[in-house]
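User: Hi! Is it possible to get a structure for several chains at once, not just one? Here's what I have:
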Amino acid sequence: MTPSRLLVLSFLLFSVGMYGVLARRHLVGLLLSLELMFNAGNLAAVAVAWSYGRGTGVLLALFGIAVTVAEVALGLALFLLADRVRRTTVPDDLSLLRR
Amino acid sequence: MSDLAFWVGATLLVACALAVVTAKSLYRAAYALSGALLLTAAFYASLGSALLATVQVLLYTGGVLTLVVYALVVSRGTTTAGPPRKPFAAAATAALVFGALASFGRSVPPARLGSEPMGGRELGLLLFQRYLVPFELLSLLLLAALVGALMVARLERAR
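Assistant: Yes, the chains can be modeled jointly so their relative placement is included. Here is the combined structure:
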């Protein structure tokens, strides 16, 4: 296993997540795809940290995980709000500001 | 980690990722995401970072899966994803981004193992000496996110 292989794997995961963000129509599906992209970023940070033999990249991933969990909590709160107040789970319907 | 283990892990990881973005039922997508996160934790452990693997399993996989499933259970709307929006354009964009990223990924030097251990003790020293200010800022961010999530979720009742 080499760092560049790990990096390419993380790029692949990032792209798959990006496809999900672009193609998913449900808010939770969107959020799950975003998680996939975050996870790919963490994996890339750890791979580079391993390749240079430094602990800093691991700390970056640690911070990244904490930020992501906060983001999930907020995102799901927004999802529940959209579900209850606007009665929709599709981001396309949330176009109040466009009208 | 041997080559075989890497390829098996990588294949499973990509399969889980594809399931996350294509599964019809969002519960299945959430479980597939937890599988992807657990496999990533296995990669972290094989890179010598047991602490990060533990955090990944406990906080990320456990926390995210619980939150997502809970939100799906209490939501009134549908929990099945509709048909994808412009799948070919989305796939083409993702492939383009992957190509651009992969062209950068070749210039990484090979691993120098053992130059600086990444165990719990070393990470703790880094975290509480050199990166103390980011750590405290992060706790502030977590608190703000928690209060913000509570406020947003309570908005309906407040009206």
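The mean pLDDT of chain A is 86. Chain A touches chain B through 74 residues (CB under 8 Å).

User: Great, thank you!
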